[in-house]
Design a protein that fits this description.
single chain; about 525 residues; alpha/beta; FAD/NAD(P)-binding domain; D-Amino Acid Oxidase, Chain A, domain 2; 3 domains; 8-stranded mixed beta sheet; 15 helices; 20 strands; globular
Length: about 525
């Protein structure tokens, strides 16, 4: 048995573990980092892990924090935003509501081919001086408590059995959740949904599914295929995501009670389900059945944990900790957030500072971000097929995300205790308002007329919305950031008033019990007659 000692040992060399290793090494070049990964690299390309779509925080983290922008631009697909079709049971996209953008927003995001990305990350990690042990399996580990003694770990690989000591032990083992399961940290978060997904060879050309020239020309350029396309219905959404390797990722995510996993847990069953709910997708897939690359399903994918970071110098990141939902693609965002907090904790430790108060603060902040985001999903899936309510909910959810959480991440203020103290009242107002609005969307859906006309709801035509996205990369001083966050919270309050006012035009009772906010608020889509 060989023995080694490291500053940091990371159990898991997937997306979360490799990016954390690179962030730590970039921040602290002299740090010794060992990553233990059970798979051997290179991993398969198209038939690999799910989680291809990125949004703004993850794209910023990969491109700027980790310095991967050249790789993203060269080897992955520049995303044409999120796009939604309210097309349950329909076979004519020109005659259903489409919500998205005609022109791509200024702040970039990407469609990632996870196999391509993780192979590159593994190679780049080694180039940056990180020790990566592939084909290695963790056999046991011990965590020291309340002492300065190192943690211990035993693992095996092709060369035999090894023992490693680590000042910091990080769990990035994905759903295996080695630390989370060992200490029974897993908790039900009240959001119960399932998912199936698969990859098909060749590109699915959604732009060719409709011959209507006006519909084709609503996008500039007419390249809807580059979007994360959501085909939505009551209780579910279906994704279409292109991969740079030439394959296409397809997934169905559904409320567990409304669409049981038993109805779609094989490719043949999923095809039957799609013929009923999304016939255009099924029709395209029938032509390419022989190109099926993989198929997987996952029950009850969403969960939380009671712990993320410890003063005893261990931490969780990625799905080893908590997972929300694939909708809005927050998985990589929360990897970026957790990795940033872990990097800051290691920095406090290296500086000889007590870790305990910072671990408590960062864990509290992480869970507040998690819970605020969870509100967008829990109890919401039944309204996903509503072509009136859902496009407005998407605008609200984006505005909340861009206006608050993105500001903190882009300005490197995730751990700024002084900032959170100064903005405590405003952030609490935003939290309470988001909860109220998610409840309001449910009540609105209950009385919605669900008008589903052949219109394009262009988010880019909302000037305030476009400007919010465009300003994400602004470099702000502490004072400017405080001002912007206060302005954004005020905008959210005004937006809430405008949404309530709009809904109340159809049903005045919806305004009952809602605290009045000056209306009209920021511009919304024109109402469809």
């Amino acid at each position: 048995m060989t023995a080694s000692s490291h500053d940091v040992v990371i159990m898991g060399g997937g997306l979360a573990g490799l990016t954390l290793a690179m962030q730590l090494k970039g921040r602290f070049p002299d740090l010794t980092v060992l990553v233990i990964e059970r798979h051997r690299h290179p991993v398969p390309l198209a038939a690999h892990k799910v989680g291809e779509s990125t949004v703004e925080i993850a794209a910023h983290y990969f491109a700027h924090t980790l310095g991967l922008r050249e790789h993203l631009e060269r080897d992955h697909i520049h995303k044409f935003g999120f796009r939604f079709f309210f097309s349950d049971g329909k076979d004519d996209l020109a005659n259903v509501t489409e919500s998205g953008v005609r022109r791509v927003f200024p702040t970039p995001s990407y469609q990632l081919d996870r196999g391509v990305l993780e192979n590159y990350l593994a190679e780049e990690a080694v180039r940056r001086g990180i020790e990566l042990r592939g084909g290695a399996v963790v056999r046991s580990f011990g965590i020291t408590q309340g002492a300065d003694e190192p943690h211990t770990l035993r693992y095996t690989d092709a060369s035999g059995e090894h023992e490693a000591q680590a000042r910091w032990l990080i769990d990035a083992s994905g759903r295996a959740g080695l630390i989370r399961r060992k200490f029974d940290f897993t908790r039900d978060n009240g959001h119960h949904a399932n998912a199936i997904w698969f990859r098909m060879e060749g590109r699915m050309d959604i732009d060719g599914w409709c011959n209507d020239a006006d519909w084709q020309n609503r996008c500039e350029p007419p390249e809807r295929w580059r979007s994360t396309n959501h085909l939505c219905g009551p209780g579910y959404w279906l994704w279409l995501i292109p991969l740079s390797s030439g394959a296409h990722s397809v997934g169905i995510v559904a409320d567990a009670a409304m669409h049981p996993i038993e109805d779609m847990r094989t490719f043949d069953k999923a095809m039957q389900w799609m013929h009923k709910h999304q016939p255009l997708v099924a029709r395209d897939l029938e032509k390419r059945r022989d190109g099926l690359l993989d198929f997987a399903f996952l029950r009850n994918y969403s969960y939380t944990t009671t712990r993320m970071f410890s003063a005893d110098r261990w931490a969780l990141t990625g799905e080893a900790g908590a997972f929300l939902d694939p909708f809005y693609s927050p998985g990589s965002d929360f990897i970026a957030i957790a990795n940033t907090y872990i990097t800051m904790l290691v920095g406090h430790d290296l500086a000889g500072e007590p870790v305990a108060p910072w671990a408590r603060l960062y864990e509290r902040l992480f869970f507040s971000f998690y819970e605020n985001t969870l509100q967008m999903y829990r109890g919401q899936y039944h309204l996903f097929g509503d072509p009136e309510v859902m496009p407005i909910k998407v605008v609200w959810d984006y505005a909340y995300y861009w206006g608050v959480l993105c500001q903190l991440m882009f300005q490197n203020r995730l751990g700024d205790a002084a900032l959170f103290a100064a903005l405590g009242p405003e952030l609490e107002r935003a939290r309470v308002l988001n909860i109220a609005m998610q409840d309001f969307f449910r009540r609105w859906h209950a009385v919605s007329r669900q008008r589903n006309a052949g219109v394009m709801l262009d988010q880019g035509e909302l000037d305030w919305f476009h400007q919010m996205n465009n300003g994400l990369h602004d470099e702000l001083s502490h004072g400017d950031l405080v001002d912007r966050l206060r302005t954004n919270v005020a905008l959210l309050e005004s937006l809430a008033g405008g949404i309530v006012d709009r809904a109340a035009k159809d049903d005045p009772d919806l305004a009952d019990g809602v605290t009045p906010v000056p209306a009209p608020g920021p511009a919304l889509f024109a109402r469809v007659a």
